[in-house]
Amino acid sequence: MDDPPPYPPDPPSPNPSSIPTLLHPGPLHQHGCIALSLAAHLPPQSATIQVLDIAPHALALADLNTRTLAPRLQNPVTFIQADIMLDPITNAIPRKACDLVVSNPPYVTNEEYAGLEPDVKEWEDQRALVAGEEGMAFHWRIARVVARTLLREGGGNGIGVPRLVMEIGGRHQMEGVTRVLKEEGFKRVEVWEDMAEGRDV
Questions:
Q1: CB 153 within 8 A of CB 185
Q2: Cα(143)–Cα(25) distance, rounded to whole angstroms?
Q3: Ranges of Pro residues compositional bias (predicted)?
Q4: Which residues pair with 199 in a beta bridge?
Q5: Higher per-residue pLDDT: 84 or 195
């Protein structure tokens, strides 16, 4: 298999007349780091950002981080407790309301989890790591929910960026995740090399 291309060039700045909605679904237990980075680095008042997580303690810490970083945030962030695997997601997010979904979902297999180092297993919530026998249960669920329920009709709202960005666990998951994305109607699927020499879809 050919090596994937490096990260694509930075997308153009959002159209000032459009305010896209970005969604970061969980369970992630990352205390808002991706959402807050987007809120800080996107142009001022160019997006509204909503974050889903299953864990109340993670949301509480994310809220604390939001208040701590408030002077640096240029876009509003809202945190919502929900389980994307179980909840009717439209109870938390209106249908067809999102322009971009970004997720770093669990991608460790059951077998891989058994062999993880103690400095991971003893400090990370298992729900934030394990995603079934193939490590792709969340990718499959997110792809289907995003394509069928969450993405706004019309594509991208003119912001010139992908509609769905997810991290995967490595090359062994590229084919399975790519297949599901295409089955759900994503016509252009790319794999980018991340800065830690991993693989993101």
A1: no
A2: 11
A3: 1-17
A4: 193
A5: 84
Count Cβ atoms below 10 Å from residue 144 Cβ, excluding itself.
Answer: 14
Domain covering 21-200 in this structure, CATH number: 3.40.50.150
Quote the CA–CA distance of 129 and 27 in Å, as a whole number.
9
pLDDT in tens, 66-102: 999 999 999 999 998 888 888 677 777 878 888 889 9
Specify the pTM: 0.77
pLDDT over 90 (residue 160): no
Look-up: residue for tokens 């790591």? 129
CA angle 100-102-104, nearest 5°? 170
Structural contact between residues 197 and 158, judged by C-beta atoms closer than 8 angstroms: no
Q: Which residues contact 26 (CB under 8 A, 6 or more apart)?
A: 51, 52, 53, 54, 55, 58, 82, 84, 105
